[in-house]
Write a structure and sequence with these properties.
It is a single chain. This protein has 21 helices and 33 strands. With 772 residues, the chain is an alpha+beta fold. The strands form seven sheets. Strands 1, 9, 10, 11, 12 and 13 form a six-stranded mixed β-sheet that branches. Strands 16-15-14-19-18-17 form a six-stranded antiparallel β-sheet, with helices on both faces. It has a six-stranded antiparallel β-sheet with strand order 22-21-20-25-24-23. Strand 24 and strand 25 form a beta hairpin. The longest helix has 34 residues. The protein is elongated and about 135 Å long.
Length: 772
C-alpha cells in the first residue's frame, strides 16, 4: 500500500538529530549580515523553546520575545518589529531587547521552530523592502539544515528494523534522477559488491538482464504517479544465475509527492527453479496426454453414468479395475467449492456442442479437487470433449482423461504461502514503524498468520529475565478466532505475565528452547495457560536473536495439523519476530538513555535537586497558570549566610556537605507540587505553587528554623558549627508578571534580609508597599 510520511515530527528527536555547529555558523553569518546583537534558531518542544543554534547572547530574548516566537509559529507568518514600545521591551540584566524579527521554520510543511533576530537598539531597516526577502533566505537555509537532519534520522531509523531481517532492502530516493540511499547487508549479498549507495537508476539497471531492466524501470516510473500501490517483480542478475523477488512500496509526503521507494528483496533462485521444473512438467504432461491417457473416463449425460479407467480408479484408492459410478456419486466426491464450477463448465460445453454439432470437437480442461478412498482430497486436471455417438446421431458423450496434479498444486500453494508471509512480515514491520507499538505489530501479524494457516488459536509472547536472572514469559498477543474462552490479553491493552511456576505448553517451550508440535490432544502432557482454550493440535516455536531467547510463537487448532514443513515455512516469520523484538529493546534502551541525559541536564550533580536550567524551564508553567487563571504563586530566593567562612575555615568538602544538607532540608519542607532548585553557589530558589505570599512566609520561617537547628562537624575537628539562611519572598502579580521581574523582586527582598542582619525572611510587597 502507498505510505504517507508521518506528519507528527517529534521535536525531541529533531533536537537530537541536529548538531549545533552548522546552525551556530549560520547564525553568526546572519548576525553579521543584519548587524544585530543576537541571532537564534529556536526549536519548540512542548510548551518550551530550546535554542539549537545562536550567535551573540541567547539570554537577550526574555519575555515578551518568547511570546513573539509563539505568535510566529502559530500564524506561520514572519513578524517584524523595528522598535518595541518601552512597556513591551524585555530586559536581562542591562541588555534591553528593542527590536525583534522572527521567521517560521518548517520541516515537511510542519512548523517546528523560529529563526529570529534581536537587538538592543531599534532597527528601522526591518521594515525595508529587501529585509523580509533576505530574512526568508536565511530562514530557508536553517530549515534546509533541519530538514536534512530529519531525513537523515528517518533514513537511519527505518532500515535499522530490517538490518536483522531475513530480507534484503533497498531505498530509492526521489529526485530528477532516482538514487539509492540505503543498501542492507542482505541486499548487498544478493546483488554483489557492484552496488553502492548513491547509485543511479541507470547504474543499478546495468546489473539486470535487458528485459528485466526495462520491467524494473517501468515500476520506478509507475511509482512516480500519486497513490500507486505496491509492485511485485521477479528479476534476474545479468552476470549471475540468481533470481530475486522484489516487493516495492512507495512513500509520499503530505502533498502526495513521491519521496522514497522501499524495496524488499528475497532470493528467489530456488523458487524460480521449482517454477521452471513445474513448467517443464506441465509441457511434458501435455505431450504425454497426446500419446497416452494417464487416466481415462467417459460420461453419458442421458444415463448419468460415468465410467473410469482402472488407472484412475487406482489413483482414487479403488481396485485397479474399471469403475462404473453414478454421476451424482462422482459429484459427491468433489470438493464442495469446486462442484458448481465443474458442473457449469460441463453444461456449457454440452450446449455449445449441441448448437454446433458439425464443428470439430473442442478440448476443455478443468482443475478440481476430488476425495480419494482415504478421505483425502487430491487435485486432478481433467481434459475432455463431447463426441457424437456413432450409433445414435445427435447424442453426445463426454470423453476425457485425468492426471494427478496434487504435487504441482502443493508446490504452487507453498510459493503463494511464502509470498503471503513476506507481505505479513512487511505489514507488521510497517505497523511498528508507524507507531513504535510492538504489541500492535504482533496483533496484526498473528491475525494474518491464523488466516493464512487456517488456525483458530495463537499467541505471541515476550521472554524476559527477572531480577534473579530466571527466564519468564509475557503474553503480548493472543487471538481466539471463535472467542469462546476469554483471556485477559484478549480484552484490552493490558499484557499478561504468566510465570514459569505453572506448568503449560509455553513454560515447556521456554525450558526446552526448541520447536515442538503435536497433532492429537492425547499426546499433550499440558495445555495452554489458564484462561486460554485447550488445543486440539499445537505448534510452538521459540524466537531467538543472537543466540538469546527473546520470544515465543504458538499456533493451534489447524485443520490439517502441523509438521516440520510448517516450521520451515514459518522460519522467516520467526526471524522477523526476533528482529522486531531486538529493535524495540534497543530503542527502549536508547529512550532510557535519552531520558536519563535529559534529567541530568536539569539536575544539580552535587545536591540532586534541579539546577538553574531546570528552574527556568519550570517557571514557564507557573507563568502560564497565572496568565490564564490568575493563580497566585510565590518565589523564595535563599542564601546561606557567611558561607564563604565555612569553606575558608572547614574546607570545601565540609562546604559541599553543608550545601547538600541545606538542599535536603529545603526539599523536605515543601510540597510535591513545589519546585526546589540550586540557583548557583550557595544560593537556592523555591517556587511555591498556587499559594500567596502570606502563607509562604510561615512556611519559610519553619524551614529557616529547621536549617539553623542542624549541626555540622568538620573531619578532624571537634568543634561543631551551625549555619543560617536569609530568604526573600515575592509573589507573582500583574506587576511582577515576567520571570525576570519576579526574580528581581525576590532578590530585592533577599537584599533587605541581609541588610537587616541576616537569618530572617523578608517579603517583597507589590505596588511600592515596602517589605514585610
Amino acid at each position: 500500500m502507498p505510505h504517507q510520511i508521518d506528519s507528527r515530527i517529534s521535536a525531541t528527536e529533531l533536537l537530537y538529530a541536529v548538531t549545533e555547529q552548522e546552525l551556530n555558523t549560520l547564525c553568526e553569518v546572519a548576525a553579521s549580515f543584519f548587524q544585530v546583537h543576537c541571532c537564534m534558531v529556536k526549536i519548540r518542544d512542548g510548551g518550551h523553546f530550546r535554542i539549537k543554534g545562536s550567535s551573540g547572547t541567547p539570554e537577550a530574548l526574555p519575555e515578551p520575545g518568547t511570546h513573539y516566537c509563539l505568535q510566529v509559529m502559530e500564524n506561520r507568518e514572519p513578524l517584524l518589529i523595528s522598535e518595541l514600545m518601552l512597556n513591551e521591551a524585555g530586559a536581562t540584566g542591562n541588555a534591553v531587547v528593542a527590536a525583534y524579527a522572527g521567521y517560521p521554520l518548517c520541516v515537511e510543511n510542519q512548523p517546528v521552530g523560529v529563526f529570529c533576530l534581536t537587538d538592543q537598539r531599534p532597527h528601522p531597516d526591518f521594515q525595508e523592502a529587501g529585509f523580509r526577502a533576505n530574512l526568508a533566505r536565511f530562514s530557508a537555509l536553517a530549515a534546509a539544515v533541519l530538514t536534512a537532519a530529519y531525513l537523515r534520522m528517518r533514513a537511519a531509523a527505518r532500515p535499522d528494523i530490517f538490518r536483522h531481517s531475513p530480507f534484503g532492502m533497498l531505498v530509492w530516493h526521489m529526485g530528477p534522477v532516482m538514487r539509492i540511499t540505503y543498501v542492507s547487508d542482505q541486499a548487498r549479498t544478493l546483488l554483489g559488491d557492484d552496488l553502492f549507495i548513491s547509485a543511479t537508476d541507470s547504474g543499478f539497471l546495468s546489473l539486470l538482464t535487458p528485459d528485466d531492466a526495462l520491467a524494473y524501470q517501468r515500476i520506478l516510473s509507475h511509482h512516480r504517479a500519486p497513490d500507486t500501490a505496491e509492485q511485485e517483480l521477479t528479476f534476474q542478475l545479468k552476470d549471475k544465475p540468481v533470481w530475486i523477488s522484489q516487493f516495492s512500496y512507495p512513500e509520499y509526503d503530505t502533498n502526495g509527492h513521491l519521496q522514497s521507494v522501499y524495496c524488499y528483496l528475497l532470493n528467489a533462485t530456488a523458487q524460480k527453479a521449482v517454477e521452471q521444473q513445474l513448467e517443464r512438467a506441465r509441457l511434458e504432461m501435455y505431450v504425454r496426454l497426446d500419446s497416452v491417457a494417464i487416466g481415462t473416463w467417459s460420461y453419458d449425460p442421458q444415463t448419468e453414468i460415468r465410467r473410469v479407467s482402472p488407472r484412475m480408479a487406482e489413483i482414487l484408492g479403488f481396485p485397479a479395475e474399471e469403475l462404473r459410478i453414478a454421476q451424482r456419486d462422482w459429484v459427491a466426491l468433489m470438493h464442495p467449492d469446486d462442484r458448481a464450477y465443474v458442473s457449469a463448465a460441463t453444461q456449457e460445453e454440452l450446449q455449445n456442442r449441441q448448437r454446433f454439432p458439425h464443428e470439430k470437437p473442442r478440448l476443455r480442461s478443468v482443475e478440481y479437487r476430488i476425495r480419494n478412498r482415504d478421505g483425502v482430497y487430491i487435485w486432478v486436471q481433467s481434459g475432455g470433449a463431447f463426441i457424437e455417438s456413432i450409433d445414435t446421431p445427435g447424442r453426445f458423450v463426454l470423453l476425457g482423461s485425468y492426471i494427478d496434479i496434487t504435487a504441482r498444486k502443493q508446490a504452487e500453494s507453498a510459493l503463494n504461502e511464502r509470498r503471503t508471509l513476506l507481505n505479513i512480515i512487511q505489514q507488521a514491520q510497517q505497523q511498528f514503524m508507524l507507531n513504535r507499538d510492538l504489541h500492535a505489530a504482533f496483533d496484526l501479524m498473528l491475525s494474518q498468520l491464523l488466516t493464512l494457516l487456517q488456525c483458530s488459536l495463537g499467541c505471541i509472547a515476550l521472554v524476559r529475565k527477572d531480577p534473579s536472572g530466571r527466564l519468564d514469559y509475557y503474553l503480548s498477543a493472543v487471538l481466539d478466532v471463535f472467542g469462546e474462552h476469554p483471556h485477559p490479553a484478549l480484552n484490552g491493552p493490558a499484557r499478561t505475565s504468566a510465570g514459569l511456576e505453572s506448568e503449560n505448553l509455553l513454560s515447556e517451550l521456554v525450558r526446552e528452547g526448541r520447536a515442538m508440535y503435536f497433532n492429537s490432544p492425547a499426546v499433550a502432557q499440558t495445555g495452554f495457560p489458564e484462561g486460554m482454550p485447550q488445543p486440539e493440535n499445537y505448534l510452538g516455536i521459540p524466537v531467538f536473536f543472537n543466540g538469546e531467547l527473546t520470544g515465543l510463537l504458538a499456533l493451534a487448532n489447524r485443520s490439517q495439523g502441523f509438521s516440520n514443513e510448517t516450521i520451515e515455512l514459518l522460519s522467516p516469520v520467526v526471524l522477523s519476530l526476533g528482529a522486531l523484538i531486538h529493535t524495540r529493546d534497543e530503542e527502549e534502551k536508547r529512550m532510557q538513555t535519552e531520558a536519563q541525559l535529559a534529567r541530568l541536564a536539569v539536575t544539580d550533580t552535587l545536591t540532586g535537586i534541579l539546577n538553574r536550567r531546570g528552574f527556568f524551564e519550570k517557571t514557564t508553567d507557573f507563568l502560564a497558570l497565572f496568565r490564564r487563571y490568575g493563580t497566585p504563586s510565590t518565589m523564595a530566593i535563599i542564601d546561606i549566610d557567611f558561607f564563604k567562612r565555612v569553606n575558608d575555615r572547614y574546607g570545601h568538602t565540609t562546604g559541599d556537605e553543608v550545601l547538600r544538607s541545606v538542599a535536603a532540608t529545603l526539599d523536605s519542607g515543601v510540597r510535591d507540587t513545589d519546585v526546589v532548585a540550586r540557583f548557583g553557589g550557595e544560593e537556592f530558589v523555591i517556587l511555591f505553587a498556587a499559594t500567596g505570599i502570606e502563607q509562604i512566609q510561615n512556611v519559610m520561617e519553619r524551614i529557616r528554623v529547621a536549617v539553623a537547628s542542624v549541626s555540622y562537624e568538620a573531619p578532624g575537628r571537634k568543634d561543631e558549627f551551625f549555619v543560617t539562611i536569609s530568604a526573600g519572598l515575592a509573589q507573582l502579580t500583574t506587576e511582577e508578571n515576567t520571570v525576570d521581574k519576579w526574580i528581581a523582586a525576590a532578590d530585592v527582598a533577599l537584599y533587605q534580609a541581609k541588610e537587616q542582619g541576616r537569618n530572617r525572611v523578608v517579603c517583597f510587597m507589590s505596588g511600592g508597599a515596602g517589605f514585610s
